[in-house]
Amino acid sequence: MAAATASRGSRWFVAAGVAYLLAWQAAVLAAAVGWLAAARTALALLGVHGFVVHVLLGKAYALVPSYFDRALAAPRAPLATLPLTAVGAAGLAVGAVADLDALAAAGAALWAAGVLASLGVLAWTIRGNLAGAETGTGEANEHRERVDRLANAAMPVALAYLAAGAYETAAVALGLPALAGVGFPAAAHLVAAGGALGLLFAVGFRLLPRFLVAAPPFWLVAVVLPAGLLGPALLVAGFASGPVFAAGAALEAVAVAGFAAAYLVLSVRTDRDRVGFRGVLAAVLSGLAGVALGVGFAFGHVAPTAGPVLAHLRLNVLGLLGLSVVGVTYQFYPPTVGVFPYSGDRAALASLVALAAGLWTEAAGRLGGGDRLVAAGAAVGVLGALAFAYLVASALRARAARR
């Protein structure tokens, strides 16, 4: 019963993340065609604090305890904390759009409280095994033990980044002492580059080899995880110029390139073919472009004006993080089990193509100053998000019907 309660709460977190993805894509389109005067901060809040964090916490509730050979300490925690994060993220975004500081402050307080409560439950769950030596790896996967331990050791660090980002978000909105003196960009980088991307690397090295029934080169795992965990700290400490910031950008580039290389090796070594794998492939390609822009900012080769900065945000958050989430979600919730009409792999592939092609078109427009390209890409991206939401709802409906 406790496991079923925790699982239900985890699914609701994922559903909230999908809803925020739709809202984010719609806001980007509305801003592109002039219907909404959405500031860059508001768009980042919808993407990072809304979409990414809800999916991240939902899967963390589901996966982290088992990876540390534990059961979730408080099975009702997901359902209890979700209203705080969901309402809080909405308050943050609407407050930023409408320039309502009081609403943004209230939203930040609620969101941070929900995130920190979630992280507290996860920390209590894995107490006594914070280094992750107990991996829950079965005998059939004994050959993966070394990678699993290294990935486990990275997860608490990524969760700590998320906690720091939650505090920084509240500090910026409420006027509390901040961890860094650069305002919301520090919070966004702590949450997205530190927490979300760190968890993508760590969880990815546990999940993806099992999905593809292949093994990544261990040396790549040993390079990606330390680089990916140290890079965000340097980015925030040196933001947004100077040698420390450049070193952080370089480490992030090494981590993303290494993760992309590891995934390509897995793709070559596998004999499995699933529609979700294409989503992860599109994700790592987007991530390479996103970190290339970040390196350009850090080394002075690209001016950090509005267009390139938004392209950087979208390629990393919707591209690297988002398309990875979509691809992996299709593994957990296969489109073929859905009960709604047209649920299947073709629709899933169409959603991935629309999300990726829309993103890349939009990014090209932002980098080249083509407003029509930005609007066209955003419109295609909305269609992709709608298709993804439809297929996830279809699969969740099928699961609920079986209970």
Task: Provide structural commentary.
Helix 6 (184-212) runs parallel beside helix 8 (243-269). The chain is built from 12 helices and no strands. With 403 residues, the protein is an all-alpha fold. The chain has helices at 2-32, 40-67, 77-98, 101-125, 145-174, 184-212, 218-237, 243-269, 275-298, 306-332, 345-368, 371-401. The protein has a domain at 273-403. The longest helix has 31 residues, at 2-32.
Write the topology of this structure.
Blueprint: H1 2-32, H2 40-67, H3 77-98, H4 101-125, H5 145-174, H6 184-212, H7 218-237, H8 243-269, H9 275-298, H10 306-332, H11 345-368, H12 371-401
Helix pairs in contact: 1-2, 1-3, 1-12, 2-3, 2-4, 2-6, 2-10, 3-4, 4-5, 5-6, 5-7, 6-7, 6-8, 6-10, 7-8, 8-9, 9-10, 9-11, 10-11, 11-12
What percentage of residues falls in helices of 4 or more residues?
A: over 70%
Strand content: under 5%
The helix/strand class is: mainly alpha
What oligomeric state do these chains adopt? single chain
Mean pLDDT: 94
Alpha-carbon distance between the two ends: 12 Å
Task: Report the uncertain regions.
Answer: none
Order of helices and strands: HHHHHHHHHHHH
Largest sheet: none
What sort of overall outline do the alpha carbons produce when their principal axes are compared?
A: globular
Number of strands: 0
SS summary, helix count: 12
Rg value: 20 Å
